[in-house]
Design a protein that fits this description.
alpha+beta; Tumour Suppressor Smad4; 3 domains; five-stranded mixed β-sheet; 8 helices; 37% helix; 24% strand; flat
């Protein structure tokens, strides 16, 4: 895109190909600002063709994340963006025309929102689903600096997966969770600074008192301790934050592999039914790949039983079927009474029984 300044503002221009047809309905929807996530666009006619002109007056490029303040406000704006992209599909806007890149995205400081360019043209392969946005584009967009400090890794992964699967419910649930969950990094940072300052003052006073008493070795020890306080506080804070993020990430992963409540929709899935302490549990899996085990950080489906290894098996979805692969150390997976070979995928079907340690799973296919 070419950036141009004129008497009426600042614009990003994109030349249209000769055979490109303007989509009047899409252009009107965007001009009216109904989806709330697209830059105002105008069509300029020239002797040599036409071009789209996006109004970027008074907006901040998303690549200049350092100029955009307010962590929690940016989180809400990120959630609103993906909700708006979902609503644009409901208005039959072609998602393949959305330019999802931080290079061409802008921050509106007045409305506190993210705006993207949309090409209101008739495309060759139109798509009115969020899956029309390529998974790689969504991943790359969420890896930009703007999102680095405002979304967790699991939130990004969940959004990417939900968009690629056109799972509107998951998108809405994830965005609602993002909007309702604040990140208090600034408060943590301030708290750590106060701790460092207080401990440093105490250590310095102790060192000074030791010098007055003539106890030089103890004074030197206090001075050395004072110098290492910032590193100790930073290490402890990093460990705490990492632990919290891992717990949150584990919870988000489990939200993808949920307990089957029987509420139906049209998503093809694999259902595992098993018993723990005489309690019947059903898990529905609708991802392309899922791991099962006892470790809450290594496994997607957590089974709390001593006979289940940390990473026990993997379930893989192919075109029309599901496969299981043994990942256990002790080759401890059996399918219909027969032990399966390690690292070799086996197809699993309705009604088959999968034994992992002491837990037996009944396999069924269904719709969620």
């Amino acid at each position: 895109m070419d950036i141009r300044k004129g008497p009426y503002g600042k614009f990003a221009a994109m030349k249209l190909e000769d055979d490109t047809l303007l989509h009047e309905y899409a252009a009107e929807i965007i001009r009216d600002g109904i989806p709330g996530c697209f830059l105002p666009v105008y069509v300029n006619e020239y002797r040599n063709g036409r071009e789209l002109s996006f109004d970027i007056s008074d907006l901040i490029p998303l690549t200049r994340a350092d100029l955009i303040k307010g962590t929690n406000q940016k989180r809400k704006a990120a959630a609103d963006l993906f909700l708006s992209l979902t609503s644009s599909c409901n208005m039959l806007l072609d998602t393949s025309n959305i330019i999802l890149s931080d290079k061409y995205a802008y921050w509106d400081p007045k409305e506190q929102r993210i705006l993207l360019p949309y090409k209101p043209i008739v495309s060759k392969t139109p798509s009115v689903h969020t899956s029309g946005l390529k998974r790689q584009e969504t991943e790359s967009f969420l890896k930009s600096n703007f999102f680095s400090d405002i979304l967790t890794l699991e939130e990004k992964d969940t959004l990417t997966f939900a968009m690629s699967e056109d799972n509107e419910d998951m998108i809405k649930n994830t965005c609602t969770r993002i909007r309702n969950t604040d990140i208090h990094k600034d408060k943590k940072s301030l708290s750590d600074t106060c701790k460092t300052l207080i401990l440093s003052i105490i250590s310095a006073l102790c060192a000074l008192f030791s010098v007055i008493k003539g106890d030089i070795p103890i004074a030197l020890a206090f001075f050395l301790f004072s110098a290492t306080i910032p590193f100790i506080i930073n290490f402890a804070g990093h460990g705490r934050t990492r632990s919290e993020e891992e717990k949150e990430g584990s919870s988000l992963r489990r939200s993808i592999f949920f307990e089957d409540s029987g509420s139906g929709n049209d998503i093809d899935c694999l259902i595992l039914t098993y018993y723990i302490d005489n309690e019947r549990i059903r898990r529905a899996i609708y991802t392309d790949r899922a791991t099962l085990g006892s470790d809450r950080f290594l496994s997607d489906i957590i089974i709390d039983d001593s006979s289940i290894e940390a990473l026990h098996l993997e379930i893989i979805k192919s075109t029309d079927s599901y496969m299981v692969r043994d990942l256990s150390i002790n080759d401890n997976v059996m399918l219909d009474g027969h032990r399966i070979e390690k690292d070799r995928p086996y197809e699993i079907r309705d009604g088959q029984r999968l034994l992992c340690g002491n837990i037996e799973f009944t396999i069924s296919r269904g719709l969620r």
